[in-house]
Design brief:
By secondary structure, the chain is mainly beta. The protein is 0% helix and 50% strand. It has strands spanning 34-38, 41-46, 52-58, 61-68, 71-72, 77-78, 83-89, 92-99, 102-109, 113-121, 128-134, 137-142, 146-149, 155-159, 171-172, 176-181, 184-189, 194-200, 213-214, 220-223, 227-231, 237-242, 251-252, 259-263, 267-272, 278-283, 297-301, 305-310, 314-318, 324-329, 344-347, 351-352, 357-363, 370-375, 378-383, 390-395, 402-410, 416-423. The protein has a five-stranded mixed beta sheet with strand order 32-38-37-34-35, with no helix packed on it. A four-stranded antiparallel beta sheet has the order 1-2-3-4, with no helix packed on it. β5 and β6 form a beta hairpin.
Amino acid sequence: MIKKIIVPILVLGIFSLILVSYTQGQTKSYYSGDATVFQNKLYIATANTGSLELFVLNNQQIDRIAKIRPFDERFGKYGNFYDLALRAEDGHLYVYAVTNFSIYKYQLNNESQLSLVKTVRNSYWEWYNRVGEIGGQLASISANNVKIWSKDMQVINEYEFSNSEVPYNVRGNDKYLLNVQNNHIYIYDRASRLVIKEIPINLKTSRSAHQIFLDNNNDIYIVDDYYAKKFNLDGKLLASFKHQDYEGYDMSASGYSQAVYFSNGIGVVKLNKDSFKLEDWAYTGGIAGPRGWAMGMKVVSLNGDKVVVFNNSNILVLNDKLDKIAAVASTEEDDAVAITENLYLNLDKNRAAPNAEVYLSGGGFSPNEALQYDLAGSKNLFKADLRGRFNQKIIVPSASTGLYDIKVTGASSGLHYSIAFQIE
């Protein structure tokens, strides 16, 4: 186990989640993301590198499941995802990710592969900064508003409540929206559509990022740059805990224990949720390698609390005693490989009887992308090579004589192409 040891820290600068101010070379910083438990497994996701990265905790190892960037068919190149959210719906785990004017919905298949379910692009030039869950529903956050979405990705409600500088700071539940801005917490009542309270806090910079949350009693939890604090909706300070005057970042709880956790760069602190008495702490600067700096944080329940820390040079998972379980290091982000050719499909024969072998080849897909072909309802998965090309043997299914389309679809890019085939 990792012992908690106080060591001298030379602070080279104040870190900010929204600015990602500490990087080295081309190595990307992990500073925010999401985590959830699905079918008794811990999944972690982040878009900090510009890619949608999905990880799963396997014993004491964090394994990457997927790394996907959005592909723009119009310009033939990859873009960047800005934020994402994990959601369990109807027995499946989905990842929602935003880029520019679009929201992407991916489904996890067989615990090891993401496939694109749907993409929604707005026509009114609204730039999506964040996506998350508010009051159990999917929410997008832009510089202008908060939109609530249905599971089939239709807007069902909209609130003119926003933070144009740090969209990360907009949170909420089914009754209230919260925003940290201008050294205040703003409480917005979703029923009246009005800001009903402003609570002063102490921040050294107006552009700092903070995850704030409401518990089941609608008590508000936040860590500023001097204290972790607990307020009621009237703005009354119910409890506080003075930390070491580093920049406060996130405060989170699983909802299944009597503990609350916060991050302040140098580490993670665990408090009793009611009294705010110190229960434990961990310095995260050296737990999982150099350049650790605890910023974004998410706490979930899986055989006790699990604390997921977006720790600058790594993503770190701690147990409820704040001992290290596992970590994954950030790596240098290679420039995304552009697709350099149009989609195409070829057949070695364009007609055959059931049970015959036919060879299907093609290209124009993403490098190493998982692909699926569909012929008369018969489907199979395979994979493109480094150039986005493939050569795949298929067996003609038993189906009525007639003309069919063989359709090939990219699981992550959503690119698809068809070619006609005659079943004899």
